[in-house]
Amino acid sequence: MIGFETIGNATITLFDGNPLVTTDPWILGNPYFGSWGHKYQIPNEQIENIKKSKYIFLSHGHPDHIDPDSLHLFKGKTILLGSHYGKRIYNELSKNFKCIELENNKWFSISKNIRLKVFADWNQDSTVIFEILKKNIILNLNDGNALGWSKEIKKIIKNYKNRFLLKLINWGDADMINFYDANGKFIQPHASNKPPCGITYGYHMRKWNCNYAIPFSSIHTYVRKDSVQMNKFVTPIEAHSENFNEKYGTLLPAFIIWDFTKNDFKLINPKKNIVEKKDPEIFGDNWSDELDEEDKKQIISYFKGFDHVKEKFGFINFRVGNKDFNIKLSDRNEGLKFETPRNSLIFSINNNIFDDLLIGNFAKVQLINVNSLYPDFNPFVTKYGDNGGARTNTQLTNYFNYYKLNSVNYWNDFLRFKSADFLRSKLERYKTFYNLLKNLQKRI
Q1: Domains of the chain by residue range
Q2: Same fold: 2-278 with 281-403
Q3: CA 320 to CA 328: how far, in whole Å?
Q4: Helices 293-303 and 342-350 sit at what angle, rounded to 10 degrees?
Q5: Helix ranges, 7-43 (H)
């Protein structure tokens, strides 16, 4: 068969006779300190095809895309990566794997009938496009937006007959949503509105010149006892097609085997997992554990290393083991209060993966005189700092200079997304304007 199959959360395996390349294979682990699990089982046949793939493409560092517990399955495989500032993933994985850091916007042939291009962006994500039989193309955006490459990618894609879109589209829970206001009241996330996903699919299919789309990169469930309440914000598979207009193309099922020699597909019908609620202690988190003096020193050193955070926030408070630890950053009134278990907090800081703590959604974040973590905490801490190694203002200048030189449409996308971030930070608190904001973001 010359084709592909989709399974799991963000995994597609391409075939040219045999399994050839698989993307982001999360198979075994429970990412985000045990908070996430698979909503559906991965059948043995698909697991074997993943394990037999010659190449493994890893898009970015989130553990539902690079699963540490699954990596040992790919010994002897060639790992394909985007070319990012700081080379963090490449440097870490190349110690134990053969890794190829692909040059942006250059074809890389992996068989007679399949080749690919990678596009690395300044959010430390990588988009990949696969060309099959010279007339079909798959655009795998995973969690990202191909920042700095949108016009170039659209120009490439429009020349193909069958154009498949793989992109995170859901109600909006695949991010930090466990927010509280200054009075300690839970802030209902946008996902609570259950916005029709079909409209979003139609928009992105038009935007990216695609005539097919497949639900992707958002097929998970919460399994920790202190995060399972977030499952009410997780988008069911059947909700992805709500209000989809077929004039924009075809929205395919999430799990399929597509054969390009027949130009048709058949369904994979994985069993749905029964959610087994897991104690946080299984993953090392005891909410009664307190910070010791060494922990406090590490937290201070970590956050005071971010110049932008010090410029925009007056304090960051951590409530751990029912005790408060406050870091004064400046005389500003804006601040953040995190309530979180000690183990995951210290592990995330020591390993520069603070985003994992946030996306797990068991930690609570109280917003004090700010409307959101965006745009001044995220992505400066999680993307530019942890993943890119750029914390000081000088390092940030070097960081963005790198992407200016290594993106075709840098300024076009930079100005649009910075404008959207600014508007979101100002309007996010006003629910009556939220949908207006979302529509504005779509238009730009």
Answers
A1: 2-278, 281-403, 409-444
A2: no
A3: 17
A4: 50
A5: 31-34
| CATH superfamily of the 2-278 domain | Ribonuclease Z/Hydroxyacylglutathione hydrolase-like (3.60.15.10)
Please answer whether residues 137 and 157 qualify as being in contact, where contact means their C-beta atoms are separated by less than 8 angstroms.
yes
Strand 55-57 versus strand 78-81 pairing type: parallel
The model's pTM is: 0.93
The 10 Å CB-count burial string (b at 16+, else e) for 27-62 is bebbbbbbbbbbbbebeeebbebbbebebbbbbbbb
Separation in Å, CA 51 to CA 26, 55, 73, 74: 12, 10, 7, 7
Question: How far is the C-alpha of 227 from the C-alpha of 280, rounded, in Å?
Answer: 9
The Cβ of residue 144 has, within 10 Å, a number of other Cβ atoms equal to 21
The answer for residues whose C-beta is within 8 angstroms of residue 268's C-beta and 6 or more apart is 5, 6, 7, 43, 46, 255, 256, 257
Here the tokens at position 21 are 């390349």
62-79 pLDDT per residue, tens: 999 999 999 999 999 999
pLDDT at 275: 84
Q: Which CATH class is domain 281-403?
A: alpha beta
Joined together, the tokens standing for residue 422 give: 């600014």
How deeply is 285 buried, as exposed, middle or buried, from its count of CB atoms within 10 A (0-12, 13-18, 19+)? buried
Q: Is the pLDDT of residue 441 over 90?
A: no
Task: Output phi, psi for 265, to 5 deg.
Answer: -135, 165
Query: Above 50 in pLDDT, residue 440?
Result: no
The span from the CA of 340 to the CA of 211, in Å, is 44
Q: Report the mean per-residue pLDDT for the chain.
A: 94
Take residue 84 and report the two structure tokens written for it.
């990012």
